Amino acid sequence: MSLRRKLLTGFGALAVLGLILAGVTVYAIVQWSATEESLRGHYVRSLRAQEVRAITFRACKEIPDALATEDPDARQEFAAALEPSERAFVEWESLAEDEEEQAQVASVRAAFDQLVTDAGAVFDLVDQGDRPAAIEMVETVLEDRDFERFETLTAAAVESGRDKRRELVANAEAIRRTATLTLAVTGIGVLAVTLLVAAYLSGDIFRPLRELRVALAELASGDREVRLDSERGDELGAANRAFNDLAEQVTAVPAHDQLAAPPARPQAVTEPASLLRDAVADVDAELISRRITVEIAVDPGLDPIRVDRAGIRDALAELVRNALDALPDRGGRMTLRAAPAGDAVSLEVADDGAGISPDVFARLECGAVRSRGLRVATTVARQHGGRFLIRNRSSGGTLAQLLLPTGH
């Protein structure tokens, strides 16, 4: 499978899981909103049913007043007390969600109308002066039939509203549990795919790229045996095969250290301090931006030396560049030093970086790896009849030395 297809598959899976997360979230929000609205509607319907019942019972209190005190305004007060019931009935009917609820409202209204009609008959008997008949009608018709039927129907309507609300709450809880479970499973899936993609990027992309970069550096430093895995079938495998072809071509070319070394030039008497300052002159800006501390130390008793100034400067500049590469991106310390070393002068470049690993150091000693800077330093030292040495410091970092004979 190509690298592009692998990446598309991984990120496509993430996109699908993300869409599922978004879909479940939107669905849950919509369902919860609908449930909340429905709960509110059923609650208001129950309130309207109770309001109708309260209005009716409050109005019916005028009937005993008419019987007991023969209040001439009892009928009008009864009618006035019932006026709010029409508004409550209309709102109750408008909130009915299905035919069952509409039938429930209609049955309560029918019982209400019957009760009002019979109450009107009681007021007629009172107006006619037939109090015994009015009292009998109240006891046998209003109390035993109309009130009981009206109370039963309104109570049933209120209880039906409670049942609907309990059902809605249970459904909402089921939706919440389902949505929570789905979100949890999808979230785990997103995390798993993310980890898989991260592992793939780290193992199948970043690691091979690092290996390619290291191999290029090793090839540039003179290691002609380095090769990369050519069995991969993706684009990185093609890059590895191209690198191996390049390495084969490089291997076919004879290696001569002298190719990278500067030619010998006339020598002149030079102050060692001047050589050290010149070596860092070209990297001043980088030293400042990376906040690297540089120390230049010259033994006070050291005399000027006769050297190829340009050659020594180039060699020291290459060693300074190697030291910069060994230091962290920010901070670190580099020391350039000139001191007597027996019958020679030692020009040194030291850093406090990570030092040279044992395997790389072994390959340096046997000549399997030799960077441009080390080749230049070695050749210049030989041209002056001296030696080039490099080693790890016990305090950490690397020390590179050009040992130049003073009598040269």
List keywords for this structure.
Four Helix Bundle (Hemerythrin (Met), subunit A), alpha+beta, 2 domains, Heat Shock Protein 90, 408 residues, two-stranded antiparallel sheet, 11 helices, 7 strands, five-stranded mixed β-sheet, 68% helix
Provide structural commentary.
The chain is an alpha+beta fold and 408 residues long. The chain is 68% helix and 11% strand. The chain has eleven helices and seven strands. The chain has helices at residues 3-60, 62-69, 74-94, 99-127, 131-220, 235-251, 272-281, 284-289, 309-326, 358-365, 372-383, and strands at 268-270, 293-298, 305-307, 333-341, 344-351, 387-392, 398-405. It has a five-stranded mixed β-sheet with strand order 2-4-5-7-6. Strands 1-3 form a two-stranded antiparallel ribbon.
Question: What is the secondary structure topology, with strand pairs?
Answer:
Layout: H1 3-60, H2 62-69, H3 74-94, H4 99-127, H5 131-220, H6 235-251, E1 268-270, H7 272-281, H8 284-289, E2 293-298, E3 305-307, H9 309-326, E4 333-341, E5 344-351, H10 358-365, H11 372-383, E6 387-392, E7 398-405
Parallel strand pairs: 2-4
Antiparallel strand pairs: 1-3, 4-5, 5-7, 6-7
